[in-house]
């Protein structure tokens, strides 16, 4: 009899846990947003040209070219590749290059309804570029987030910009996509995440924006061809995965996929990092990942963490169904610091991890490592230098991000954009192509 009741209790607890993790959470509010139609890479009198970068060359065996070169300390570089183009976004503007590293066109963010803290990606399923701009200087905070979506895979042609109401937002957020959805999460207020349908935005239609209470986590670049949009967060000692699913009426709702202890030794926020020739330290980044990739049923991300008192880069491959860690690795040193990291993964599961290096003996300089899918688990190949910083920054703030991304045309090559200091300590950027076998 005791065994019977024990079994019943166990089954009941499992059923309750399943009900808890599969409970639908619907949007707390919606709004319909009319797009602003733009074609502002045409460099007419209303949107003057911003010419930056180019100058392609081979550095340590890799194609490297300059991105924007007019940044201050908070550069916030991002990159997206598709349609035969490389598109860069920073706090100073948007620039398009060809895939050989030659400058094509460039404009300021004001040409796309203003904003800073760009996040940028190329949706290979819908063949569109997507970026967001947070308009910090909108005092009434009525329309502080602009979600811009190109109508084709040519970033030089038509765009649709959706100014979304986020009255309580206090900083820029993160963007992600799936076959069906564009997602944006941000700090501030009660509703911290919204989604809209890519098809509406690509077509330039009035778009329904669905807002959710709380944060769902950081939206993910869904490279697998599925409709659901996944979100990831680090909550205390757990990795939490959620997803947005569409119901039979076309309304999105949220399901929790997993919440699993990560059991990692290094997970604290990284300390500020020293620079050569000055006592002024710089921000090392954030343990919360700035871009995440869903590839081959797994979630991949890198992060900056505190490793024995220095900033190190840690990377992970997580099973998207169970939340279990498949592999993890750490890039660390007892004499230098690795900061501001992002990851890119291709269809073969080859991996690129971009970041910057700085220490008591050096200035902020661009670096990357990579691994082939068949390399031993938890390992990366030797670090590659693609430039040396020349000066110290004059403040702790140092752009919140780097950018790493898949080539949306061939789905094999990987790209990264990293900051580098010039001789005045100001932020410039370099863009690197890392080719892989098809």
Topology record:
Layout: H1 2-21, E1 29-33, E2 36-38, E3 54-59, E4 62-66, E5 78-82, E6 85-90, E7 93-98, E8 103-107, E9 116-123, E10 128-134, E11 145-150, E12 159-164, E13 174-177, E14 181-185, E15 191-197, H2 198-203, E16 207-213, E17 218-219, E18 221-222, E19 229-235, E20 238-246, E21 252-261, E22 273-275, E23 278-282, E24 292-295, E25 298-307, E26 310-319, E27 325-331, E28 337-345, E29 351-359, E30 362-371, E31 384-385, E32 403-406, E33 414-421, E34 427-434
Parallel strand pairs: 18-24
Antiparallel strand pairs: 1-16, 2-12, 3-4, 4-34, 5-6, 6-7, 7-8, 9-10, 10-11, 11-12, 13-14, 14-15, 15-16, 17-19, 19-20, 20-21, 22-23, 24-25, 25-26, 26-27, 28-29, 29-30, 30-31, 32-33, 33-34
If you had to describe this structure to a student in words, what would you say it looks like?
Strand 19 and strand 20 form a beta hairpin. By secondary structure, the chain is mostly beta strands. It has helices spanning 2-21, 198-203, and strands at 29-33, 36-38, 54-59, 62-66, 78-82, 85-90, 93-98, 103-107, 116-123, 128-134, 145-150, 159-164, 174-177, 181-185, 191-197, 207-213, 218-219, 221-222, 229-235, 238-246, 252-261, 273-275, 278-282, 292-295, 298-307, 310-319, 325-331, 337-345, 351-359, 362-371, 384-385, 403-406, 414-421, 427-434. Helix content is 6%, strand content 48%. It is globular, with a radius of gyration of 21 Å. The termini are far apart.
Number of strands: 34
| Estimated radius of gyration | 21 Å
Helix content: under 10%
Q: What is the quaternary state of this protein? A: single chain
């Amino acid at each position: 009899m005791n065994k019977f009741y024990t079994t019943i209790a166990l089954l009941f607890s499992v059923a309750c846990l399943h009900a808890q993790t599969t409970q639908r959470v619907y949007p707390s509010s919606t709004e319909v947003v009319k797009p602003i139609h733009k074609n502002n890479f045409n460099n007419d009198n209303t949107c003057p040209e911003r010419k930056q970068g180019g100058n392609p060359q081979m550095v340590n065996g890799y194609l490297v070219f300059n991105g924007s070169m007019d940044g201050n300390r908070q550069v916030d570089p991002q990159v997206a590749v598709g349609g035969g183009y490389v598109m860069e976004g920073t706090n100073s503007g948007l620039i398009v290059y060809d895939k050989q590293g030659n400058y094509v066109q460039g404009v300021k963010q004001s040409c796309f309804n203003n904003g800073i803290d760009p996040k940028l990606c190329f949706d290979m399923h819908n063949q569109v570029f997507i970026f967001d701009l947070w308009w910090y200087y909108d005092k009434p905070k009525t329309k502080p987030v602009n979600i811009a979506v190109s109508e084709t895979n040519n970033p030089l042609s038509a765009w649709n910009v959706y100014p979304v109401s986020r009255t309580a937002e206090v900083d820029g957020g993160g963007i992600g996509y799936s076959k069906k959805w564009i997602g944006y999460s941000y700090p501030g207020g009660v509703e911290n995440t919204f989604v809209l349908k890519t098809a509406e935005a690509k077509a330039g239609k009035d778009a329904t924006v669905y807002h959710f209470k709380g944060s769902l986590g950081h939206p993910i670049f869904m490279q697998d061809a599925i409709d659901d949009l996944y979100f990831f967060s680090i909550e205390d000692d757990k990795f939490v995965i959620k997803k947005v699913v569409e119901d039979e009426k076309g309304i999105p709702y949220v399901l929790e996929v997993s919440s699993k202890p990560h059991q990692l030794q290094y997970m604290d926020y990284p300390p500020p990092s020293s620079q050569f020739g000055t006592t002024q330290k710089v921000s090392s980044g954030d343990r919360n990942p700035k871009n995440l990739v869903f590839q081959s049923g797994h979630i991949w991300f890198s992060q900056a963490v505190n490793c024995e008192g220095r900033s190190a880069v840690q990377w992970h491959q997580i099973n998207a169904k169970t939340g279990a860690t498949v592999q993890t690795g750490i890039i660390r040193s007892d004499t230098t610091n690795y900061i501001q990291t992002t990851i890119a993964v291709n269809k073969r599961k080859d991996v690129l991890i971009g970041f910057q290096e700085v220490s008591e003996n050096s200035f902020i300089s661009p670096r990357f490592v990579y691994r082939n899918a068949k390399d031993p688990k938890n390992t990366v190949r030797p670090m590659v230098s693609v430039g040396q910083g020349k000066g110290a920054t004059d403040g702790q703030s140092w752009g919140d991000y780097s950018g790493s991304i898949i080539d949306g045309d061939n789905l094999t090559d990987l790209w990264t954009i990293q900051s580098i200091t010039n001789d005045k300590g100001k932020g410039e950027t370099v863009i690197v192509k890392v080719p892989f076998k098809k």
